[in-house]
Amino acid sequence: MVIGDVVCAIIERDGRFLIARRPEGKHLARKWEFPGGKVEAGESEAAALDRELQEELGVRVEIIERLTPVEHSYPDRSLRLIAFRCRIVDGVPDAGEHEELRWIEIDEAGAYDFPEADLPILAEYRLKIAAVPPGAPDQLHKAD
Ligand SMILES: Nc1nc2c([nH]c(=O)n2[C@@H]2O[C@H](COP(=O)(O)OP(=O)(O)OP(=O)(O)O)[C@@H](O)[C@H]2O)c(=O)[nH]1
User: Whole-structure pTM over 0.95, yes or no?
Assistant: First the structure.
């Protein structure tokens, strides 16, 4: 089964990011993931992300950066996972259908069981924040 594009958010706050635990009974049950979901026909990636984050967490975000899409096949489905670094502009995350939410540091990620498609995303994210830690002064203004 090809389910197409899935968008998800790495929501950053104070050097941490938000992960959510999938509930029992869903695909990849009880794994930790980035909130998000499938892009619907005719919908842009940003619109899908906005819709899913409002539905799942009750927040609005602004996008900082789009990471490299990851194509992955699970035994029963194939998808393209597109992660966005984001920050919250409105609302406080509510677990909703997720079993639990947690704010973690990148160095803690190894202790959580993520879906296979998320592993290249975590690796890319680790490199990016090692180069420019979240909240670091804007490089463009460093010379001011
Ligand atoms: N949201 C999300 N989905 C992921 C991640 N990694 C990953 O493999 N997936 C897979 O992407 C697919 C879409 O996820 P979903 O089930 O949350 O999407 P949805 O809410 O639109 O679907 P639904 O209405 O069928 O429940 C699932 O098969 C899920 O297992 C991730 O980090 N975040």
Answer: no
